[in-house]
Design goal:
The chain is α/β, with parallel strands linked by helices. The chain has one domain: Response regulator (Rossmann fold, 3-Layer(aba) Sandwich), CATH 3.40.50. It contains six helices and four strands. Helix 1 links the parallel strand 1 and strand 2. The protein is globular.
Length: about 170
């Protein structure tokens, strides 16, 4: 699926349970699109590889970390990634290599596999390939993870923006 003049660019961020990292990335990426005046040209969603938290809000520590940085994650409800997500999204962004491996295993063909990317390599200054899972850590780790996601998502958005921006 590719974006056209009327179709928005669709990106889905994927982590384990869809309550910590991927909701952060979804909200942050959407914020960058809105700030650039491209909110109507981008659909940012998220999903988990597992189904443990389907229907739940993001982890309270995720919501608190987002709020401290001026983001609102209250509308988020966890869901599991499905094969349909390959067809309905232009880009499938894994938050760590374990998610990437799972997604590649689920890819039905080369077109599905070509949609998959890791988030952190978009940030050329990042010292890590994976966004660490803050679930079993303290609240401070959620702030650290959010900062990593912001930096990498900003780099991803800057790379995609010329293709998303309508031709004048």
């Amino acid at each position: 699926m590719t974006a056209t003049a009327v179709d928005p660019f669709r990106v889905v961020f994927v982590c384990t349970g869809n309550i910590c990292r991927s909701p952060m990335a979804e909200v942050v990426f959407r914020s960058f699109a809105d700030t650039a005046g491209l909110g109507s040209r981008v659909v940012s969603t998220s999903a988990g590889t597992g189904d443990w938290h389907v229907g739940e809000q993001a982890d309270r520590r995720t919501l608190d970390a987002l709020a401290r940085r001026g983001y609102d994650g209250a509308r988020h409800r966890a869901r599991q990634f499905t094969l349909t997500d390959f067809a309905t999204n232009d880009l499938v962004v894994a938050l760590d290599r374990s998610h990437e491996r799972i997604l590649r295993g689920w890819a039905r063909d080369e077109a599905d596999a070509d949609r998959i990317a890791l988030l952190m390599p978009f940030d050329t200054n990042a010292g890590a390939v994976d966004v660490p899972d803050p679930y079993y850590a303290g609240a401070g780790m959620f702030d650290e993870v959010l900062a990593m996601i912001e930096s990498a998502s900003r780099a991803l958005f800057r790379q995609l923006e010329p293709a998303i921006r309508p031709v004048a």
